C-alpha cells in the first residue's frame, strides 16, 4: 500500500481508485520448486525475480502493507503464459521516466506486459493531474522538468492502482 509522501504519494495522488486501498507497487507471485518468488520491476534491481520472504521483508521494513489479489477463475488460464513472459523480461533496467519503453520497465508496465497477450489489463491514457486542483501535480511537473521531458499527460500507460482495480481480480488478503 502506498505511502503518502514522495514518489509513492505522487503516484497515488493522481491514480488512486479505491478509497480503502492505494498502491504504488505491483508484482506477480510464482511458486517454483516449493518456493515462492515475486517477479517485479523495482528501482533497485530493475526487472527481477525475488524470493518472497526477501520481498516481504523489503516492503514491510519500508512501512508498506502487501495486499494479495488473484485472478478470478475464468482468467486463470492466462497465468502460465504471463509467468513465461515475465521470466523473459527479467534483467531489464527500471524505467525511471514512466513512459513506455521496450528496453526498461516500471512495475505496472512489467505486469501489464506479462498479461498483455491475454488482455487481462489494458493501457489507458495516463494522467498527472491532481483531482483536488485540476492542474498537473507539482511533484510531476518538477519530476519531468528535471529530466528535460514533457509531462506525458494522456500518453498510454498503466499504474498499480489501475491494475489493482481490475474487475478480473479478487482480493485475497494482506500481510
UniProtKB/TrEMBL annotation:
Q: What is this protein called?
A: Permuted papain-like amidase enzyme, YaeF/YiiX, C92 family
Instruction: Name the source organism.
Output: Chryseobacterium vrystaatense
Amino acid at each position: 500500500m502506498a505511502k503518502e509522501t514522495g514518489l509513492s504519494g505522487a503516484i497515488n495522488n493522481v491514480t488512486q481508485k479505491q478509497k480503502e486501498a492505494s498502491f504504488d507497487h505491483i508484482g506477480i507471485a510464482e511458486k517454483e520448486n516449493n518456493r515462492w518468488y515475486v517477479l517485479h520491476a523495482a528501482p533497485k534491481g530493475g526487472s527481477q525475480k525475488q524470493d518472497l520472504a526477501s520481498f516481504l521483508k523489503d516492503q514491510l521494513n519500508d512501512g508498506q502493507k502487501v495486499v494479495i489479489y488473484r485472478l478470478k477463475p475464468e482468467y486463470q488460464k492466462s497465468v502460465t503464459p504471463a509467468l513465461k513472459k515475465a521470466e523473459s523480461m527479467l534483467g531489464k533496467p527500471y524505467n525511471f521516466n514512466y513512459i513506455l519503453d521496450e528496453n526498461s520497465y516500471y512495475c505496472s508496465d512489467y505486469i501489464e506486459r506479462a498479461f498483455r497477450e491475454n488482455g487481462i489489463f489494458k493501457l489507458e491514457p495516463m494522467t498527472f493531474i491532481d483531482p483536488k486542483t485540476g492542474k498537473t501535480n507539482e511533484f510531476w511537473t518538477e519530476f519531468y522538468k528535471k529530466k528535460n521531458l514533457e509531462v506525458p499527460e494522456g500518453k498510454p500507460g498503466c499504474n498499480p492502482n489501475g491494475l489493482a482495480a481490475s474487475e478480473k481480480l479478487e482480493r485475497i488478503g494482506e500481510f
